[in-house]
Amino acid sequence: MKISDNYSLLAHNTFKMQVSCRRFIELERPEEIVSLAAQHIFEQPFYILGGGSNVLFTRDYEGVILHPVFKGIELIKEDEQTITLRVAAGTEWESLIEYCVENQYYGLENLTGIPGLVGSAPVQNIGAYGMEVKDSILTVEGYLLPSVEPICYSAEDCRFGYRSSLFKTELKGRCFITYVYFKLSKEPHFNLTYKALSEELARQQVKPTLENIVRCVRSVRDSKLPDITQIGCAGSFFQNPIVSEEQFEQLHQQCSDLISYPAANGVKLAAGQLIDKAGWKGHREGDAGIYPKQALVVVNYGQAHPEEICQLYEKVISDVYNKFKVLLRPEVNII
Q1: Do 119 and 27 sit in the same domain of this protein?
Q2: How many domains in the chain?
Q3: Is 119 strand, coil or helix?
Q4: pTM here?
Q5: What are the two backbone dihedrals, phi and then psi, of residue 173, each rounded to the nearest 5 degrees?
């Protein structure tokens, strides 16, 4: 492992916040987490940081950052129709997508372009374009902190929900994930339920293949989301809210073009549309802003301070609630 003190986190958060941590530990092997327990590391504040693409640091972190850098994709089981992959937590998510395309494994292609590491995927239950990672996860391995007790959770154990999981709720910040097991199909099948994706396939006049799906998803993402190498952001900043059927009917009378999706416990609304209708799309205060092409995205145009980002997103939440009585919640982790 590699240990650094008073370490800048600028390269480890896509919001490009100029913050640092007291100690930064890169773990090169999963079992190194056990030796850290013996050193009493977990008796002080600690945070597990993957690719830093779903976090907003509001200040310097006065504790220890744990960052997995161990990588690897291993095929451990195969039959005529499916394969099971064991993927190390420090593997770049996009490397897994490229591996699946190269080997013609189906089930994750709509999730291309999502920044971050594989170990973070089950925490957030990442999803995009009609697909969620929970539908391909078999098991999640790791250690429960601070006891460093080995854990192995089935997909059912993980209690996946919309942008949520056991790792984001009851066990938030307490699970150091080491490996994620994915069960994928060797036979072609695609999820084309998302309108923008099917329209992009038609626009490019191509048939659904793994390569074409990945290319079209990337094209749709690029048309709506900023390049994180150029503009600081954490992707979609707000969750799409879920309201009751009764509240949806009231809102539909107020806005006849309201975008909605069925949800298990009500109706899911498009947070971006609500923010747009409230007049915030493209709004900018100094270097903090709402992205002009997608109102879900809060951006740092260069030198925005954490408090400026916080003030802006809090204004958006307050104004949307005042106008629609819908409470938006941040999707990113705010530290």
Answers
A1: no
A2: 3
A3: helix
A4: 0.89
A5: 75, 5
